[in-house]
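User: Show me an example of a complex going from sequences to C-alpha cells.

Assistant: Sure. Here are the input components:
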Amino acid sequence: MIVAEQKPMEEIRRVIAPYERVLLLGCGTCMTVCGAGGEREVSFLNSALRVAQAKSSDGIHSFSEYTVKRQCDFEFLDLLTDKVNEVDAILSLGCGIGVQVVAERFPDMPVLPGVNTSFMGMAKEWGVWDERCAACGDCRLAETAGICPITRCTKGILNGPCAGTKNGKCEANKDMDCAWILIYKRLERLQQLEKMRRYYPPRNFRVIPRPRRIVMKADVELGEDNG
Amino acid sequence: MANSLFEEKLNSNGFLVTTEIGPPKGADVSEMVHHIDFLKDKVDAINVTDNQSSVMRFPSLGGCLLVKERGGEPIFQITCRDRNRLAIQADLLLAYSRDIKNVLCLTGDSVDVGDHKEAKPVFDLDSVQLLRVVREMESGKDMGGNELKGVPQFCLGASVHPEADFIEPQLVKFEKKVIAGAQFFQTQGIFDLESLRRFMQYASQFNIKILAGIIVLASARMARYMNDNVPGIIVSQAIIDELANVEKGKGLQKGIEIASRLIKTIREENLCHGVHIMAVGNEGIVPDILEAA
Amino acid sequence: MDNYQASRMREASYGHSLIPPCQVACPLHMEIGEYVDLVAQGKVLEALQVIRDGNPFPSICAYVCTHPCEDACRRSQVDKSIAIRALKRFAVEFGGDRMIQLEAETTQSEKVAVVGSGPAGLACAYYLRKLGYPVTIFEAYSELGGMLRVGIPQYRLPREVVDTEVQRLIHMGVEIRANTRVISLDLLFDMGYKAVFITVGAHQSLRMGIEGEESPGVIDGATFLREVNLGLKPSLGEEVAVVGGGNVAMDAARAAVRLGASKVSILYRRSRAEMPAGPDEIEQALEEGVETMFLVTPTKMKRENGRLSVTCVRMELGEPDAGGRSRPVPIEDSDFNIEFDTLITAIGQAPQISEDFRLRIGKGSTIQVDPITLTTNRTGVFAGGDAVTGPATVTQALASGRQAAFRIDDYLRHRYPLVDKEAEETLSGELLPKTIEMIRKIERLEPPLLPPEARAKEFKSVELIYNWEAAVDEARRCLRCGMGAEILFQDKCATCLTCLRVCPYHVPYLDEGGTIQIPADQCQACGICVAECPAKAIVLRKPYDRRHIDEELEHALKSAAESKSKPLIIGFCCQYGLFGTGALASLWREGKAGIWIVPVLCVAKLEGGHVLRAFEMGAEGVFIAGCGEQCSRENTAFWVLQRVEKVRKTLAQIGLEPERLQTFNLRIAEGDTAEALDNFTEQIGGLCLASVIKQEVKS
C-alpha cells in the first residue's frame, strides 16, 4: 500500500491561499486505507479549513469536497469534468501519482498536493504503518528470506550487518530492528544461512532509467497471414 | 613483495601498533600536523578517519597526504557513505599515485548519527563490495570493465566487531571480508578480553592480522555517552564503574590506566597481532599509553 | 445527479434494521428494543409512548405477561436475559400510564358487538373504537376483565389496574353491558350489530373424572379463584391440596396460603421440569411455603370424618406424547392415602360455547376460525382469545383481539385482508464465542420482591418496581440486536480492514471472496467502526442513529446563536445512564453560562468532524462527556481519546489552543464533574479574553 501523511495545516493553507474556490479531492484506494486522504479525511480537512478561516476571519475560500475511487486513472477523473468548471484550484489528497494524473488531466487547473507521499508499506496494526518496499526494480527477497535490506536496513547494504547494531536494533533508529539480524535469524530458521555467506555484488541503481516505464503491450503486426 | 611499509610489518610477526587521527572541522590543519609529527615514529601506521560518525571534516585522503608529507605511514580510511563508485575508484587512483597504499574499507556510519542529518546517504557500495572492487582494480580493470592505465596495488584492511551482542552475523560478515580480500582488521573498541579471546579462537583459522581497537575513555560520562550514541561501542559496566570511582580530574588518567592494562595483557598473552589505539581527541596521550604498556 | 448526491440520498432513505428476536417472540410484536433503549436513557415518557404504540394495555402486561421476549432474549447467551417485563413495568409506572386519557370519535356507522370482556375482548373494543366504530361489550358477570378479573389473583394483578383500563374504554365511548349473558347471536344481528366478536374465554374447569369428585371439599380451580377475586373467602381448613401444574394451580395454591391454610400441597403427575407454570410463579410459590408432590395423581377420593381421604398413585415418566412431553405412567401397586381438608382441581379449562350460537366447535371445545381472518362458519361472526386457542396467555389474547379488530374493519369496509406485509428481515443466529467473550458480564438486576413472609399474609402485589438507577442499569445490558452497523456502500469500501481491527467484539470478517462482512446478528451496535471507517462506507441501520448527532448539533448551534451567551461552549454528552435526570440536567435545560448540550447516544459515535463543526460555528470550547470505563460497550474511551488527540493536533496547527477541547467522565461523582465543568468554562473564558486582547494589540 502507498502510505502518506497529511501535510501540516499551515502548509496547506499557504498553498491554497491564492485560490477562492477550492475542491478537496480524496482518493478511495491507498489514501483511504492508510487514513491520509479518503472520504473521511477530506471531510475532516474541509471542517478544519473552515474553522481556520472562521478564526482568522479573513476567509475568502469556499470549499467543496469529492472523493473518486482512484486518482491515478484518467477514467475515474471523468466524473470531475463538470466540477472543475466551478472551482479555481484542486487540493488533491491523493498520493504523488494522483496529484500528477489529475494535473495532467486538467492542465488548466492548479492542482496542489495535500499529503506527503512517504513510502510503500504495510500496516503492522491499526494506525501503525511500516515501510517495506523501495521499488528498486531488482527484487532480491529470495536471498534474504523475504526481508528487504534496501528498505529495512538504513544503509541499504547487501552484505550486512554493519557494526552499528545493538540489541538487535539499528544505530540510526533505535525503534527499528536491524534488518540483517532479522535476515540472519530467518535464514537460520529456514536452514539457508549459506545465502548470507554469499557475496552480493553492487546494485544496479539504474535498472530502468528514471522516470521508469514498464510496457506490457506487445508490438504486433496485423496482416492477412496472422490470426 | 609488500606494497607498503605497513604491509611489510604485517608480514613480519611483530606486535603491531596503529593509531588514528581525527582531522579538524575546518581548513586549519596545524594541530593535525602537530599530532602527526608527534606520533609518526611511535606507531607502525596512522589511520586518518573519514567524516567519522558522519560529522563533516577535512577529508581522510587529505590527511593521508599530510602524513606522507611529514614522513609517516598513513592508512586511508574510506567509507561508502559519501561517495559513489566513480568517486571511490577515482580517489583510490589518486591515493595510489601519491604512495598511499594502505586502505581501510568501511561501510560508514549512518547519516542520521552525524551533524548533517538531511544529507543524501550514498552507500552505492558496502565494505565487502569495496574490498572486491579494489582487488578488481588491482587486476587492471575498473568496475565498468575498462582497462586502467596505471594499475594500483594496495594493502587492504577492514573492521570487525568482536564484542557485538549477537556475534554470529558479524562472523558471517567477517568471513566475507576475508574472502573479498582483507589482509588486516582493526576491531571496534575492546573492553572485555573474554570476547576477544573467543573471537580470536574463530579468527585465527584465517591468514589475516587482527589489531584490537583500544579506546581511551576520559570519564564515566564519556563512556555512557559513547554507549548510547556511538555505533559499535559497548562499554562494560565494570569499566564504567571503575571510571566513576575516581576523583574529579583523574578520569583521563584512569582511562590511560585501563587502556594500558588491556594492551599489556593482549601483548603478554599474545591474544592478537597488535592494537589500534583510538584516543578520540586526546591524541597527545598515546605515547603515555605505549609507555605504560 | 452525481454519485455523491446519489449516495447521500441512498444513505438517508436506508433503514434496514433487523427485527430482534424479542420483538418476534412478542405476540403483539412490540418494539421492545426501542423502549428498552429509551429506558436506558431514563426517558420514561418516550418509552411509554413506544409501549402504548404497540400495546393497548401496558399496565396489565407489565404485571402478568409471561414474557416470551425474555425467553428469546439473546443476552441469555452471554449471561442472563434482560428483565424486559420489569423494565416495562418501570416505564409504565414512572411514565405515568395511569394519567393518560384516551379519546375517540365515531366515524363509522356500523355497530360491533364484543361478547366477553377478557383481554381479547377489551383489546378488540379498544382498536375498533380507535378506528371509529360504535362498540358494545357484553359481559355475563358484573365486573369486566374476564380472567384478568376472576382468574388472576390480586397479588399478581391488582384490581385497580383492570379498573383503570375499563374506565379508559368507557371514556373512549365504548358501551358496556355488564350482567348480560348473550344467548343468541341472531338476536345481536337483529339488534343492528353488523359484526360480532366472540371471546368468551375458557372458564370451564376440566374434570379429573375420578370417583368422589363431587364430594364436598372438592372445588375446581377456576371457581375457587373467581370466588377469591370476587372477595368471597371460601373456607379451606388447614390442609389443602391443589392438583395440577399450570399457572392456575400456582395461583390457587398461593391464594390458599393467603387465605390462611397452614399446609398447601401441589400434586402434579409429572416432574417439576415439565410444569407448564412460569418459573417465577413456581419459585415464588415455593418461597411462600407451598409444598410439592411430584409424580403423583389422585385416583379416588371420599369424604370421611370431616376430611377428604385421597388415594393417590405414583407415576413415572414414559414415552413422550404428541406434545413432546413425557407421558406419565402409573407405577403398579404404589397406591397410598393422604388426607386433606380441601382439594382444588386445576388441571385445565375449556371454553363453554352455547349450542345456540351454531358455531363449529373443534378440539378441546374451542371455536374453529380461519387463522388469518378470524372468521367462524357464520358470516360476520369472528372469534378469538382463549375461546379459540384454549387457555393461553394474556398477551396472546391481546394480540388476538387486535387482529380481530383489524379483520372486522376489513370486513365492514369490504376489503380483502392484506397478506402479511413483506416479511421484514429478522435476526437469526447465535452469538459466536469470540464475540461473547468480549461482552462484559453483568448480573441481571431482578426487580425487588416483597419478602415471602410479608407476601403470605395479604394479596398485595408481590413484585415491586425498580428504582431509577436499577432500571437504567438493567436496560443498558441490552445488546441492541439488529440495530448495528452495516456496510451500506460496498463500492466505497477499500477493504482497508479498519473495521475488522477496531471492533472490540471481533465481528467483521473477511469472507472467501476477500470482502468484508459485518454480520448483523453479531454486531453489538457500538458505532466505533462507523466513525472510524476511512471511506465512510459503514452506516448504522437505524436512520435515527445515523442523523442523530448531526441534527442535535445543528439544533444546539442554532439555539446558541440566538441566545448569544458568551463564551459559547458545546458539550457532547452521553444520554445513557441518568444524565437526563441527574443534576447535570440543569446544564441542559438552562444553557448555563453559554453551555449548550448536544445529547449523543454513546460518545463512541461522536466523530472528529462533529467537534470541528462546533468550533466552526462559533464554539469557543467543546467538551465530551461520556461514561468512561463504565460505557456499556468496550474500548469507547480509547477511541474517543484518539479522535480528541487528532482534533487537538489540528487545532494547534490552526492556531487554536488544544485545551479548548476537553473530555469528562459522567460516571464519577457528580460534584466533581460539575466542578470540572466550571473550571473548564472559566478556562475557556480566559482563552477568549486573551485572544480578544491579542486582536486589539494587533490592531
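The lines above are the inputs; the final block is the predicted structure for all three components together. The longest strand of chain A covers residues 115-125.
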